[in-house]
């Protein structure tokens, strides 16, 4: 069924009894042309573009939990393409362009909201670094505006401009950045893929990968063996666990990142704002809750929960930026497991096995990448050749000295 | 993550006193060990879901490097020893 204002109206008249489930719950077939491990944003987007753009429809997405139970439903929903480095910048801009047309494309309301992302700067040196990044963005055709203190004060008067240690001097703003309702992204891609024949199989954990003569023949799952022509990993935080099944050692550590939502408040923060003197980012949801987060906890974890010390750290950074936050009550907090890579950038590549593909290393910035990641990965799987825009995200870049280290902190995953 | 780490020198201390470095299974190769060995040392990591041995530094305590065996799924700490006792040289 095509969703439209008319279909909403019609169903309202009929007591909303006409809605069908947005995707089927099929019994897995014995064999698929492509099996994707992981029904997160990236796995679902990959299936969607495989079917829609590359005509590959005999596809299954295997998800060990339910759709949206991973990071795609746990992130703070920020999208932006304000990157400095070559490999990153065009890729995230492709993603931004796909976000801009996504709702029409997959006929689902993902609440894409280009409310603007502001990165605050607090010193001359930081202003210079942001100027450089803004210029790099503009050279690639991405919008960037350097705002001075006065301009930021007009927009966000409640910030602590005269903080004794970290006075706010201004901000680098990307107006096209913003937020997207994260679980609607999972649902929209799932529905669009299902509609085109993709089987989305939930509660199906991959426990082993079967190989014969150097090729993958299928996967052992909690619902039995499923054969495949090509196997595509998209397990995000669990990438290592899956890659271990084929003795592929990755430049990745799994870390926990927490996020928080406050009680509902009247409209307060119109944009996404990030603190430049610590790690803190905040936006306000349509329900009024402030959605915010900060640093990862810092130790390897698959637990989807973090420590109070990090909660305190995040709250301190938040209050240093917006003193009024000290009176806001937090309603909920949660954690997600992130595949932190050695240079902070992702991997979309072939592997040592011919028909096995890898999509991993998304760190805490992989939500904004979802459309471009799915598109480039689908291209790679369908054509066995990287998409032009995702070419830099090779697995062998570490061995070849071609790291894409946006932060410049080196091969220490918990610092990215 | 467990709240306490039992330092063999200082006793059980809050985990905030410690700094984690990561995978204790890697050892620095010889300078002429070749590119593969150096690539593995600098970039590849064991990252198990379950028991894992890591280097932790007791930064706000005795300042010794420790090897902590921890479960990355439950956050339980199983064993802590001084890194030199493990013969680690990283
Ligand atoms: C708290 C938090 C805040 C974040 N904030 C942002 C943000 O503001 N902006 C941004 O761009 N990014 C953000 N991120 C990062 C982003 O959410 C992730 O990088 C991205 O969602 C990862 O891709 P995914 O959606 O495919 O992952 P997931 O949704 O985690 O999908 C992976 C799926 O694989 C499944 N799986 C794993 N192993 C198996 C198996 N053996 N068999 C079957 N299925 C398996 C998992 O159950 C999971 O559903 C944040 C992350 C967190 C945790
Ligand atoms: Zn000690």
Textual characterization of the structure:
The complex is a heterodimer of chains A (416) and B (90). By secondary structure, chain A is of the alpha/beta class. Chain A is built from nine helices and 18 strands. Chain A has helices at 5-13, 41-54, 88-106, 124-139, 149-155, 182-195, 239-243, 308-321, 370-383, and strands at 31-37, 59-62, 78-79, 117-121, 145-148, 170-174, 178-179, 199-201, 206-212, 215-221, 224-233, 252-264, 272-275, 280-284, 289-300, 330-341, 347-350, 356-360. In chain A, strands 1, 2, 8, 9, 10, 11, 17 and 18 form an eight-stranded mixed sheet that branches. Chain A has an eight-stranded mixed sheet with strand order 5-6-4-13-14-15-12-16. Chain A has a two-stranded antiparallel ribbon with strand order 3-7. In chain A, helix 2 (41-54) packs parallel to helix 6 (182-195). The longest helix of chain A has 19 residues, at 88-106. Chain B has 90 residues and is mainly β. Chain B has a single domain (4-26, 36-86), classed as 2-Layer Sandwich (Folate-binding fold). Helix content of chain B is 10%, strand content 37%. Chain B is built from one helix and six strands, in the order E-E-E-H-E-E-E. Chain B has one helix at residues 35-43, and strands at 4-7, 11-14, 19-23, 51-57, 65-71, 77-82. Chain B has a four-stranded antiparallel sheet, with no helix packed on it. A two-stranded antiparallel ribbon of chain B has the order 1-2. Classes of the chains: A alpha/beta (416), B mainly beta (90). Chain A binds chain B through residues 238, 240-241, 244, 249-254, 297-303, 306-307, 309, 342, 398-399, 411-414, and chain B through 1, 3, 15-16, 20, 22-23, 35, 39-40, 42-49, 52, 54, 70, 72-75. Bound molecules: flavin-adenine dinucleotide and zinc ion. The site of flavin-adenine dinucleotide (FAD) has 40 residues of chain A, from helix 2, strand 12 and strand 16.
């Amino acid at each position: 069924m095509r969703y439209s204002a008319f279909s909403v109206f019609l169903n309202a008249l009929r007591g909303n009894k006409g809605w069908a489930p947005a995707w089927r719950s099929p019994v897995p077939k014995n064999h698929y042309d492509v099996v994707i491990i992981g029904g997160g944003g990236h796995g679902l987007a990959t299936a969607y573009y495989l079917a829609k753009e590359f005509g590959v429809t005999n596809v299954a997405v295997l998800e060990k939990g339910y759709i949206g139970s991973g990071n795609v439903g746990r992130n703070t929903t920020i999208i932006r393409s304000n990157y400095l480095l070559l490999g990153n910048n065009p890729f995230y801009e492709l993603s931004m362009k796909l976000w801009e047309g996504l709702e029409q494309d997959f006929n689902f309301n993902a609440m894409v909201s280009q409310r603007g992302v502001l990165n605050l700067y607090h010193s001359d040196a930081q202003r210079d670094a942001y100027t450089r990044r803004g210029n790099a963005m503009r050279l690639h055709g991405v919008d960037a505006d350097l705002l001075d203190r006065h301009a930021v004060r007009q927009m966000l008067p409640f910030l602590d401009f005269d903080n004794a240690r970290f006075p706010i001097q201004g901000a680098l703003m990307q107006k096209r950045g913003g937020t997207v309702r994260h679980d609607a992204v999972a649902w929209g891609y799932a529905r669009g893929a299902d509609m085109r024949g993709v089987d989305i199989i939930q509660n199906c954990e991959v426990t082993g990968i079967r190989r014969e003569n150097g090729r993958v023949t299928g996967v052992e799952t909690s619902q039995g063996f499923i054969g495949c022509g090509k196997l595509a990993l998209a397990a995000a935080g669990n990438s290592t666990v899956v890659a271990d099944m084929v003795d592929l050692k990755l430049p990745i550590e799994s870390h926990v990142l927490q996020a928080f939502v406050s009680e509902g408040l009247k409209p307060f923060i119109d944009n996404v704002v990030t603190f430049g003197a610590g790690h803190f980012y905040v936006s306000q949801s349509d329900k009024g809750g402030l959605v915010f987060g900060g640093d990862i906890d810092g130790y390897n974890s698959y637990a989807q929960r973090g420590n109070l010390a990090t909660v305190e750290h995040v709250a301190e950074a938040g209050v240093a930026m917006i003193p009024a936050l000290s009176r806001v009550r937090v309603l909920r907090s949660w954690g997600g497991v992130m595949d932190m890579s050695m240079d902070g950038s992702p991997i979309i590549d072939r592997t040592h096995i011919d028909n096995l593909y890898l999509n991993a290393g998304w760190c805490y910035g992989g939500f904004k990448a979802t459309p471009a990641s799915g598109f480039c990965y689908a291209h790679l799987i369908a054509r066995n050749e990287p998409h032009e825009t995702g070419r830099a995200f090779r697995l062998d870049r570490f061995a070849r000295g071609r790291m894409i280290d946006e932060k410049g902190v080196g091969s220490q995953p918990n610092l990215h | 993550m467990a709240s306490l780490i039992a330092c063999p020198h200082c006793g059980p201390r809050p985990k905030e006193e410690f700094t984690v470095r990561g995978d204790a299974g890697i050892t620095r190769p010889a300078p002429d060990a070749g590119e593969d060995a150096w690539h593995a040392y600098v970039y590849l990591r064991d990252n198990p879901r379950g028991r894992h041995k890591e280097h932790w530094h007791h930064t706000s305590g005795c300042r010794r490097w420790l090897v902590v065996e921890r479960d990355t799924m439950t956050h339980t700490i199983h064993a802590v020893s001084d890194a030199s006792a493990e013969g680690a040289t990283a």
